[in-house]
Amino acid sequence: MSSTLRVGVLTISDTASQDSAADISGPSLCRLVEAEPRYTVEVTACIPDDHKAIQKTVTAWCDDLDLHLVLTTGGTGFGVRDCTPEAVLPLLDRQTPGISHLIFAKSIQITPFAALSRAVSGIRGQTLVLTFPGSPKAVKENFEAVAQMLPHAIDLARGGTGKKTHEKMQGGPRPSGIAPTSAEEKGQTESSHGHGHGHGHGGHTCFHHSDREARTDAASLGLGTPVSRRLRKSPYPLIPMEQALSSVMDRVVPLPSVHKPVDESLIGAVLDEDVVAVEAVPGYRASILDGYAVIDTDGPGQYPVTAVSIAAASSNGSVTTLLPGQIARITTGGALPEGATAVVMVEDTLLVKSSEDGTREETVEILAKVRKGEAIREIGSDIQVGQTVLKKGQVISAVGGEIGVLASIGVQKVLVRQRPVVGFLSTGNEVVNHDNGEALKIGQIRDSNRPTLIAATKAAGFDYLDLGIAPDSPEDLEAAIKGGLAKCDIVVTTGGVSMGEMDLLKPILEQKLGATIHFGRIMMKPGKPTTFATVPNPNGGQPRLMFALPGNPVSATVTFHLFVLPALRKLAGYEKYMWPSVQAAVAHDVRLDERPEYQRAVVSVTPEGSIKVQSTDKNQMSSRMVSMLGANSLMVLPGRTAQRDSVSTGQKIECLLISNLG
Ligand SMILES: Nc1nc2c(c(=O)[nH]1)N[C@H]1C(S)=C(S)[C@@H](COP(=O)(O)OP(=O)(O)OC[C@H]3O[C@@H](n4cnc5c(N)ncnc54)[C@H](O)[C@@H]3O)O[C@H]1N2
Ligand code: MOO
Ligand SMILES: [Mg+2]
């Protein structure tokens, strides 16, 4: 028997076959399998709960690919669509009830719900076929239940004596993720195999492992897995941007509400109640001008000035009374005397007589006719008692209108959504604080991600926590992220999400933090390895959100604007949490990339009033922070197709406005 055991992992799920990002069990199973050095996952697929599709795929994998082991996940329960056992059983030449019993016996010790699995197992030709339930937890428990004896069983199914395998197993089981012995490692690397592909066996194939030479990507998946054993293809499906965005936004639930005083700390907050005025504005009949309160029917002419009303609190709680033929001197904002029906501005009058010392005006001539009500603000003419001045869902702007209105009617506290706190952690052995005064050593870089993202967060009005820099060590990363999760609604890391052996974020999230990774790659440029997960909340309540953004500075900045800021806005209760966009004519030809691209650009209004957009920089490499300089927008460029490989000058393209127009 070859010492490399070739495995097929088949996800059977209606949902996952429609939306590969929903497939969590398949990738989990792949990681468990590949953590064992003797296995290689050769083919994976994701198909619906369809009897025919299951039979077609399992048959092809057993008969055409002659795999050693086929593992299925999903469709073993009591659901109406669950039909994996019914589809697989007739394909088996011999059933292996012992294996099924072992799995059952172990699972039932963990949960009585194991009784609801109808999983089967057996041999078809020389291939061992096991059906597991469709949850990552069950998959792990089931696989671990049989991991120790599987190579032996496979050997026997292939007509071997099982001796060699049996001897090896005497050393005891090795939990997944633990490095193999050097002897095992040797056995693995010495082996080679040729095989075909598993394309087109019904349903949507999520990803394939093709032959060794063709494997150019690198992945570290499984803490403690030696580099030579890493997956060489990312197990995370490359999902479209729209799917990634809805995967994030569907999981963001606005934070609870709190009562807060009316002051500048409200800026950016979202009201969670209607605000009804309990005071009128103005609360008294007030003059709009500096001049004379009059009775309009008196008309132009000379009148004695019998009273004075200067804007100030009334000393006795009442106003004076104006009789026909009298006028009162008044200032802007002054309370009108009882009986006054209009105000004449001082410019439209003449002084006829003053007191000897000049401190009093005694007689004044009104030069022009005035209309009733002129220059008077009646009680409640701005805001009436009972009027709804602000609506639930409204954002308290930094412009001042909302705070001004609230202040004008004497509201003491308002109910607003809590503001989220986001924590930023830079990761990487090479990363040093940007303000480190020392000269950089070769291989070191200054941390530009944290200051950038913190600045953008502050500008957007959100609170943040600086979690510093963590080196690429599982212990440091785990501790730093846990620290962040205890205090922040969202934790954002940058770096360590791609395929290098020091890219530890994904395995740490899954294996150390109990996170559910909803996606680990997006078909976008920049930002391909952007990772989003939900993590159990250490303080209880809503799960925390984790964005593990790529380390490249532009990738981190662009994905922060595209995912994290909208998520922060939704957490804060914003109804409009996505960026606004405009259609702008490109000022130059733009070549399209194979990935949909978010080019950094400047949108501006031409003197003729049309909207144009220009790339910030021809070189839009994701490491090149200068391509962010001056950007107020991200051009939304579609992926290249056979029909279209560029956008020509003058053509219109959607641009997200991430800052003010230039
Ligand atoms: N074999 C493959 N390699 C890579 C792939 C791939 O698909 N297959 N994807 C590439 C893409 S696309 C990106 S984006 C990057 C993402 O890398 P990581 O998220 O793993 O980040 P690191 O490896 O830690 O760092 C990448 C790059 O960024 C620099 N960096 C990291 N942190 C900071 C910081 N705080 N401030 C400034 N610069 C930072 C780091 O030094 C590296 O140069 O992976 C590609 N690789
Ligand atoms: O997707 Mo990466 O962000 O191109 O550089
Ligand atoms: Mg990397």
From TrEMBL:
Is Magnesium there in the keyword field? Answer: yes
Q: Which GO terms describe its molecular function?
A: ATP binding; metal ion binding; molybdopterin adenylyltransferase activity; molybdopterin molybdotransferase activity
Q: Residue limits of the MoaB/Mog domain?
A: 8-153, 423-570
Query: Pfam families in the record, alphabetically?
Result: MoCF_biosynth (PF00994), MoeA_C (PF03454), MoeA_N (PF03453)
Q: Which cofactor does it need?
A: Mg(2+)
- Entries under Gene3D superfamilies matching the protein: MoaB/Mog-like domain, MoeA, C-terminal, domain IV, Molybdopterin biosynthesis moea protein, domain 2, Molybdopterin biosynthesis moea protein, domain 3
Which residue ranges are recorded for the region named Disordered? 158-208
Q: Does the keyword Lipoprotein apply?
A: no
**Cited SMART domains:** MoCF_biosynth
Signal peptide extent: none
Which biological process terms from the Gene Ontology are attached to this UniProt entry? Mo-molybdopterin cofactor biosynthetic process
State which pathway it belongs to.
Cofactor biosynthesis; molybdopterin biosynthesis
UniProt keywords (A-Z) are: Magnesium, Metal-binding, Molybdenum, Molybdenum cofactor biosynthesis, Transferase
* One GO cellular component term noted in the UniProt record for this chain: cytosol
Chemical reaction(s) catalysed: molybdopterin + ATP + H(+) = adenylyl-molybdopterin + diphosphate; adenylyl-molybdopterin + molybdate = Mo-molybdopterin + AMP + H(+)
- CDD domains linked to this entry: MoeA, MogA_MoaB
State the function annotated in the UniProt record.
Answer: Catalyzes two steps in the biosynthesis of the molybdenum cofactor. In the first step, molybdopterin is adenylated. Subsequently, molybdate is inserted into adenylated molybdopterin and AMP is released.
Instruction: Give the family from UniProt.
Output: In the N-terminal section; belongs to the MoaB/Mog family.
- What is this protein identified as? MoaB/Mog domain-containing protein
The record lists the lineage as: Eukaryota, Fungi, Fungi incertae sedis, Mucoromycota, Mortierellomycotina
